[in-house]
Amino acid sequence: MLELSVVIPCLNAEKTIENQLEAMISQEWSQPWELIIADNSSTDNTLNIIQKYQNIASHIRIVNASSKPGAGYARNAGAKAACSESLAFCDADDVVHPGWVTAMGEALIKYDYVGGRNEHLKLNDSWIVKTYSSPGEDGVFFEHPYLPLVSGSNFGIKRSLHESIGGFDENLMILEDVDYSWRLQEAGIKVHEIETAIIHFRFRNSILSICRRAWAMGCYEARLYQKHLPMGIPQLISWKTLVKTAIMSPWWFLSQVRDKVTLAKYLMDLSWRAGQLQGCIKYKYLPF
């Protein structure tokens, strides 16, 4: 019987997935485990790369997750196909550190729900790390004003719990991992951080992609907060902040932007606030 099923959702990941697979086949654990790649309709060379590694490692499987777009759907499809009661999730554009599978597998023997830690320096240029004001490493965000945030790129859970909340919300294209972690915690499940379950995390690598991501996250934040209002989430988007951003943006640009990092920070924050405004209008979420 398999003791762990690792699920990786992927879509057109030919530029990054080979590094992840190299790291995966180098993992060592005394217990049997499998690696499931849930493909979400890739049209590039992703599947050919995976198949090459299947010839090297018999525990790699490909699952067709093309019926519906989104990482949430792909993760659900991978979990449904898994043969183990313990599930671990990571992404195709990151790279697991040596010992990650062991750390996740052993943690899920002891706990039902765990989050790992993400390292930021190996896969990202220094200006990108500075743009995100990111420390070299972070993990479960216990400081969130509502409930801790657990990244979908590095966590593990017992399959029974995953199924008990209906898996990921497949209608959320972004922040589905935040919604997932909050629903688990709203149901009384505690998350435990595993410091030895380390993944090398990859940020967006251009100002344009950073801003697109920030805009989309801002938009879906309104939907996320609206969804969790019945559970008592505090008001996390303020109309005063949105108005202040609109009024002060020119002054902030003139006073703060000095180089590539400050420009990226300025545009990322502006995109995020613009996304929040769009989301409030789109999902009829009143930030009062």
Describe this structure in words.
This protein is 44% helix and 17% strand. Strands 1, 2, 3, 4, 5, 6, 7, 8 and 9 form a 9-stranded mixed beta sheet that branches. α1 packs parallel to α2 and α8 packs parallel to α10. The protein is of the alpha/beta class and 288 residues long. It is built from 10 helices and 9 strands. The protein folds into 2 domains: 197 residues, Alpha-Beta Complex (Spore Coat Polysaccharide Biosynthesis Protein SpsA, Chain A), CATH 3.90.550; 76 residues, no CATH class. β1, α1 and β2 form a beta-alpha-beta unit.
Distance between the termini: 52 Å
Largest sheet: 9 strands, mixed
CATH fold assignment of the largest domain:
Spore Coat Polysaccharide Biosynthesis Protein SpsA, Chain A
List SSEs in N-to-C order: EHEHEHEEHEHEEHHEHHH
- Helix content, binned percent: 40-55%
What's the CATH superfamily of the largest domain, by name? Spore Coat Polysaccharide Biosynthesis Protein SpsA, Chain A
**What's the gyration radius in Å?**
19 Å
Tell me the number of strands.
Answer: 9
User: Structural class, judged by helices and strands?
Assistant: alpha/beta
List low-pLDDT spans: none
Query: CATH first level of the largest domain: which class?
Result: Alpha Beta
How many domains would you count in the coordinates? 2
* Relative strand content: 15-25%
CATH A-level architecture of the largest domain: Alpha-Beta Complex
Number of helices: 10
